[in-house]
Amino acid sequence: MKKISVIALAGMGLLLASCGDKKTETATAGQEQTVAEKKGDVFAVDVAASKVNWKAFHKGGMAPRWGTLAVTSGELSVADNQLASGEFVIDMKSIKVDPASVTEKDKKYTDLEGHLKNEDFFNVEKFPTADFKITKVEDLAAPATDAVAGANKTVSGNLTLMGKTMNVTFPAKVDVVDKSANVAAKFTVNRADWGIKFGTSEADPAEWMISKDIEIAIDVKAAQK
To answer: pTM for this one?
Structure first.
């Protein structure tokens, strides 16, 4: 798929391989699109069972960092046993860094968490939430390289982060069984598309060592209301 630009968490995690050996599908991104119409049965997102994992790194795959974000609310709608629309909200203040990803003796994972929350990255006091709203769901036309196992759909949606909305497209595994609906995906985006530019200055070697790419893995589970 075509490479795009979007968020860098030189550490936000929604997971996955090192930069030098990347194993995730790169999402395509573009301008905000019309949100898909809600129709059929409504499924409430199980916030306890749903999760967003992230992984980011320094250039060349050095010193990867990873962690989690919490899903706080959301719903999916299903018509004719197919996912029709949906949305979910992410609590940006919940961003966590896995202590196991910070192995240097002179660094603390708590310091990285604080840095990710401040104005250099996600400015969580001003922008406490992010959200994703589905704009289109289509059958996956062909097997997608490095997509989540079992990917069967192409999902597009508006991702709003730090007050900016962009439409992203990625392969996903969508399952609708009985009274449940699950959406799982893993893909790579580039933080700079949302204006998160810390670490992107070529003039400062201390900054440009941070990769713009971030790997995101989502696992959203919902049950019929």
So the answer is: 0.83
